TrEMBL record:
The keyword Membrane applies. The chain crosses the membrane at residues 15-33. The keyword Membrane applies. It comes from Peptacetobacter hiranonis (strain DSM 13275 / JCM 10541 / KCTC 15199 / TO-931) (Clostridium hiranonis). The lineage of its organism: Bacteria, Bacillati, Bacillota, Clostridia, Peptostreptococcales. Keywords: Membrane, Transmembrane, Transmembrane helix. This is Uncharacterized protein.
């Protein structure tokens, strides 16, 4: 429903939702790797 309201197209809204979800996962993994490297060097 939100994709239809934001983009006037349900399919584009679904792609956007998937993009946001996977981007959040990738960012959290990168932050975790960065924090582990900082902890090893300290």
């Amino acid at each position: 429903m939100a994709g239809k309201v934001l983009f006037s197209n349900v399919a584009i809204g679904e792609y956007f939702r998937s993009f946001v979800a996977y981007s959040t996962i990738v960012i959290s993994l990168i932050m975790n790797i960065h924090n582990e490297k900082q902890g090893v060097s300290d």
